[in-house]
Amino acid sequence: MSSVNAASNEQIYQTLGLSRELEQKKDNQLGMEDFLELMVTELTHQDPFKPMENSELATQISQFAAVSGIDELNNSFSGFSDSMISDQALQAANIVGRDVLVPVNTGNLEAGGSIKGVVGITEPASHVTVRISDASGELIKEIQLGTQPKGEVNFTWDGLDESGEAVEPGQYQVEAQAKVDGENMTPYTLLEARVSSVSIGAAGQGLTVNLAGLGPVSFSSVAEIR
To answer: pTM for the complete prediction?
Structure first.
């Protein structure tokens, strides 16, 4: 029955366009019947002049019962984990194809597209600027946002350089700068990216969001779903 359920879950993941890393399961090495058989064998071949005392027998039985109980508890947690993974798969299906804000400093510029994001300022600041650089570090564009209050401010780079010419599609570095009381400070940036797929790892590993042109990031790092 478990193999049927596993196959059904994989079909669900494939239908939702998700991938899952399979985890290997180990069978129990010793069951109740095996334990009882070993116990009978031990009693049969014990030294008649030094028979096992009742306390020793009770100790062995209680120890095995404890291990068996832990194993059943682990199986219960495993079933709960599988249920949680299925719920995560349904949640993940809702964000595929949508845009998210993530704390990265690299944006992917598509042909005729733009790079959008948010600059986060922890206190009122002046000379708020977004700097766009290419892979070699050469400055391509500066976006002046002026004086901003505490909070987050949206920005958009249209893919044009300082001379108004369109640049080549690809990855570009995004960095924010500002001044607070005349001192330079670096605000945090969140960039917008499209979710192309979501990977579901083994139990305890959570979701991985695969961003178009950028690669994977942890789902827990997503600041906003748009």
So the answer is: 0.60
